Description:
By secondary structure, the protein is mostly beta strands. The protein has helices at residues 10-16, 30-40, 65-69, 100-104, 109-112, 161-173; strands spanning 45-56, 74-80, 85-92, 121-131, 134-145, 150-154, 179-184, 194-196, 202-209, 212-217, 223-229, 232-238, 244-250, 254-257, 261-274, 277-290, 295-301, 309-315, 317-331.
Amino acid sequence: MSHVGVFSRLAVALACAAALPALAADARGYAEGIYADYAGDSAGVTFAVDTLRAGPLSDVKGQSMEQLVGPATYLIEAEDGATAVEGIRLAALDSSKVNGEAFAARIDGFEKVGLPLDQGTYRLLQITVDVDRQLQRHQAAEFCWSSLKHCVVFDPNIEFIDSIVNGHRELKAQGYAPRAGFEPVDRSKAVMGCALASDTRYIAKWWTWGSYKRTYKNVYGITMVTKNMGGQQAGIRCNSSCYPAPFGYSHSSSAFANIPFSVQCDNAFGAGTTGRRGKFDAESKCAHRLTFSAKAEASVANRGSAAVDIKWDTTGSIDGNGGQMIDTCGYF
């Protein structure tokens, strides 16, 4: 998902809020765990987390998020998946991606969602980011209520980092993962010796990416964006003539957003063969961005050949599901 640090105005969000879920969290080291898991779920990024200041949350009563952590100075962008982050990169600050009202949100807003200031603590953090040996630093904040077993991280440079990490943790705890399927070669059939080049024990192989739900919440725990990512499957089977027969499916995804976000989802699949080589591609993506500007549109190129490919035109923060299977049938 292309991350940018934005949240909705409190007044609108409160009108749409459900009961605040309690996250099991230890007030000590919560932020360190968030950044460590984000790095662990991606490639090419590391974080160092240092505490600049800490104290009772009531000490910063009346301050806005921007007054506490400062403005965003650059962006960390990537594409989010069920349990991983891909394509992470540093990007220059783009004001069109940033909702200024996020930074105007006040510490006092926690009171309105059942998080008393007199029971909370805060830490002002310095975050040192290393993306492929490119270093950046910015400030973020951790807020904790030990009696409520609830913590949250606000980072102006990584959109919804707290929701991303906790979403990954939830799916991992449920045992979510892409599932591989195989059909062994039956040497008693007429296709004697025919198998997949990638593993000659099998005559068919496929990957299944199950459906999943991703919820993005603002710092007050109020849901701003919900994405229901449809299941995908891609596979190759060798037919009776020992030629590839690609198969699979692409289920559609859906999304909902509160103001100021907009959402768009799309999905596509494509299959093709060239000689004894075959490919099946199945993907779905959902985008969210500030009102009326989210875009996720798919098209299929080279349909019918092994060069088949799904092309995406996207704008905003992207969640994806699915992938491809490519293999060759032959006599072994």
